[in-house]
Amino acid sequence: xxxxxxxxxxxxxxxxxxxxxxxxxxxxxxxxxxxxxxxxxxxxxxxxxxxxxxxxxxxxxxxxxxxxxxxxxxxxxxxxxxxxxxxxxxxxxxxxxxxxxxxxxxxxxxxxxxxxxxxxxxxxxxxxxxxxxxxxxxxxxxxxxxxxxxxxxxxxxxxxxxxxxxxxxxxxxxxxxxxxxxxxxxxxxxxxxxxxxx
Length: 198
Known about the structure:
By secondary structure, this protein is an alpha+beta fold. 33% of the residues lie in helices and 32% in strands. The chain is built from five helices and eight strands, in the order ααββββαβββαβα. The two termini are 32 Å apart.
């Protein structure tokens, strides 16, 4: 019971920080559109997903490029830092131009694992391989279409426009709450290995 209370106690502060990050910061303190590079990492073990430490739910690994950093280098670096897996970038899947909560462009890349070993990091609580036909129920819903498009292997990048409104926010909150109540993933970052799902 104490573990559950501890996991739930962090929710108000976490959700307040995310609300600031999603509603206020883009409108008052940031210049230009935010571009987030994320990878659909594939191997014979499936697709690689990660759980971050703030809003908990399975997602595609990735992040922002450093100033002057080439896009593909940013994808490789971010995936390696978050998951421990080395990748080869195969193709750009497309851009998901999102408005509403946390306006940004999610630039999705199809990647192939070429080395390393999945492991939690300072940014991720858990990393695991999943069968693309059996994705976890706690995958954030805005990742489902990018994943499907990456698996479809289109010959050229696509562009989608979507609004992350109150339904997306509530879906994220429900998934975060479900993960915290269930105790998954574990909050300890000491484990050098993670479960493999196939």
